[in-house]
Write a structure and sequence with these properties.
The protein is α/β, with parallel strands linked by helices and 341 residues long. The chain has a domain of 212 residues: P-loop containing nucleotide triphosphate hydrolases (Rossmann fold, 3-Layer(aba) Sandwich). Helix content is 57%, strand content 13%. An eight-stranded mixed sheet has the order 3-4-2-5-1-6-7-8, sandwiched between helices.
């Protein structure tokens, strides 16, 4: 490695250190009421590992912690080295920590059953003699149905309030946006549906011979659903309870993704906790290294500059590129020091 390349690598180390004004540990300490933490970003940037580090750290502080995956393509079982699919499972080797890969298929089937019950309930009330199957198919074939089912499961976990803190490993950012955006979409939809039902109920009563007022089961459901979604939105937009952390690499595409979505999350009211920069090559790995590694160090140098310019004061940790996979509690523990010190 030439003198110039060594200096450049050392500069990269200084750049990485300078990016962090408020560390992840400092951020968490400054938000003692933080209960719902989300990790997102472009696919392959290390969201699951960062979520796992955060969850292990919180559990080590004595908080009952649930690490949950809302990503249809789960990775938690692989990260932890044990099966956590389908139900909250105690994590071996870490007290106070449970992990849970949400069963997407089960969530969808459960939502279909609930929709069928509600449609049958309404058809009986409306005295419509037809089967619910066609309505169920129409309601469950829309492109956002999977996100809707996953959102319902996520807020069920939050509402059950069985843990002190919740850490969510989300799907790639576009999917996470749709998932968390369901609270607003649902809210707008319910308001329109309530108005429509009020008008229909008024017409039904005016055409009735008895003029008898009856409880509309769909209205009761919509009112209850509006309160449920309103509460979910309160939690998701409370900066003292919720934070969404974006994970990126010092590369063009991951940076471009989070640039776009940080603005969207902010406009939507979801508190952005900051940015974690992952897989930064350390100085010593560039010494006597092949051209490929030296070229990567030089490339990362430019993107570290861009990260500093694009996200001033928002970087919470710069995590090095490790020489082996992070898998199992022991390796998570070792790597956690790079985020929490």
């Amino acid at each position: 490695m030439t003198t110039t390349e060594t200096a450049r690598a050392a500069t990269n180390d200084r750049k990485a250190a300078a990016l962090v004004e408020t560390s992840m540990a400092d951020y968490v300490a400054a938000h003692p009421g933080l209960r719902y933490t989300f990790f997102g970003g472009k696919g392959g940037v290390g969201k699951t590992v960062m979520a796992g580090m955060n969850a292990v750290h919180l559990a080590r502080t004595g908080k009952r912690t649930l690490l949950a995956s809302t990503n249809p393509v789960h990775s938690l079982s692989g990260l932890l080295g044990q099966d956590v699919f389908g139900k909250p499972t105690p994590v071996k080797g870490v007290d106070n920590l449970w992990a849970f890969e949400i069963d997407t298929h089960d969530a969808i089937e459960r939502s279909k059953r609930e929709i069928r019950e509600k449609i049958q309930w309404f058809l009986k009330f409306a005295e419509i003699s037809t089967k619910a199957d066609e309505f169920v198919e129409a309601a469950t074939m829309n492109p956002a149905f999977e996100e809707s089912a996953m959102f319902e499961n996520m807020i069920d976990l939050m509402f059950n309030d069985e843990y002190d803190v919740y850490v969510f490993d989300t799907a790639p950012t576009a999917n996470a946006r749709r998932l968390l955006g369901m609270s607003k979409v649902y809210g707008l939809w319910v308001d329109k549906m309530l108005k429509s039902r009020e008008e229909a109920q008024s017409l039904r009563e005016s055409l009735s011979f008895t003029k008898k007022k009856e409880q509309d089961p769909l209205m009761l459901y919509l009112v209850d659903f509006r309160e449920r979604i309103g509460h979910a939105r309160e939690l998701l937009t409370d900066p003292e309870k919720t934070a969404f952390f974006f994970v990126t690499l010092p590369e063009a595409l991951p940076i471009a993704v989070i640039r776009r979505f940080i603005d969207w999350f902010t406009d939507f009211g979801i508190p952005v906790g900051g940015v974690v920069v992952n897989m930064v090559i350390r100085t010593e790995e560039g010494e006597a290294a092949p051209d490929f590694v030296r070229n990567r160090i030089e490339m990362q140098s430019g993107y570290l500059d861009e990260i500093g310019e694009r996200f001033p004061g928002q970087v919470r940790a710069v995590v090095p590129l490790f020489d082996s996979d992070i898998r199992g509690v022991a390796s998570i523990n070792s790597a956690t020091a790079s985020v929490f010190g």
